[in-house]
Design goal:
- It is a single chain.
- The chain is an alpha+beta fold.
- The protein is 27% helix and 31% strand.
- It has three helices and four strands.
- A four-stranded antiparallel beta sheet has the order 2-3-1-4.
- The chain is globular and about 50 Å long.
């Protein structure tokens, strides 16, 4: 008879991280600049959401941008791994779109360990 393996519950092994990846536009071609400016109204803060696919936000001066990602990852890997995964996703998306960028940096928050302070009555 084989030994039974007990798997940790979903809350114990996987955590949800909200990651903000920031960067600066760099070396944008005329075509890329035109595409970004044509779509700027669809990438403001009002449309900014944490999603697995990433949500891109920027404004018309085209100096900097922000991606917001929701990353589900092994809890043991922590916030650093979630941030690295989000930066990799941002790099792939920006490269696929033909957008030049530099200075990517990110911050991650573990939503499963975040304490919520509720108002007392």
């Amino acid at each position: 008879m084989a030994a039974e393996t007990v798997q940790p519950g979903p809350d114990e092994s996987r955590h949800t991280y909200r990651v903000i990846v920031r960067g600066r536009w760099d070396g944008l071609s005329a075509e890329a600049t035109e595409r970004l400016l044509a779509d700027v109204d669809n990438h403001g803060l009002a449309q900014h959401r944490f999603t697995p696919e990433g949500s891109l936000s920027y404004d018309a001066p085209l100096r900097s941008f922000t991606y917001r990602y929701e990353i589900v990852s092994d809890a043991a890997d922590g916030e650093e791994m979630a941030a690295a995964l989000a930066e990799e996703k941002a790099e792939l998306a920006l490269t696929a779109a033909g957008y030049g960028y530099r200075e990517l940096r990110s911050t991650a928050t573990d939503m499963d360990t975040m304490k919520i302070n509720r108002k007392r009555r």
